[in-house]
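To: structure desk
From: M.T.
Subject: fold request, one chain
Message: Could you run this one when you get a chance? Sequence is below, nothing fancy, just the single chain.
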Amino acid sequence: KKVDFSHNPFSMPQGEMEALTTKDPLDILAYQYDIVCNGYELCSGAIRNHKADIMLKAFEIAGYDASVVEDQFGGMLNAFRYGAPPHGGLAPGIDRIVMLLANQTAIREVIAFPLNQQGQDLLMSAPSDAAERQYKELHIRAALPLKG
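Reply: Done. Structure tokens follow.
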């Protein structure tokens, strides 16, 4: 009983603002694409939304107040207001291509730096705590949550 994003909320809707104001939200498509080989997604990409008014309208349709969008994505919206050009791209997964070439069905069998269920690389001991000198070098500090 609610419209929500089923994929990337930052992709340009086909038809831009006109589509957002005249079409049923469930009929609006985005400029997104995938490259698939034998049922495996090798690459996905999109033309990104680069217009602040269209992004605000898309989020409004999904139930987000403009103030929330400004708070969460204000930097991006400001960049768009200054005139970001149309842009897009794709992200090929070389690991997935290697998986197919190696005749494997699980990416875990070929991935160079596998992670465990907690997103840790046990071989590299990553992620790890930063040293105090690294914080100083970058002029940042960490406010870690209190334990207990």
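Reply (cont.): Residues 25 and 95 are 35 Å apart (CA to CA). Let me know if you need anything else for the meeting.
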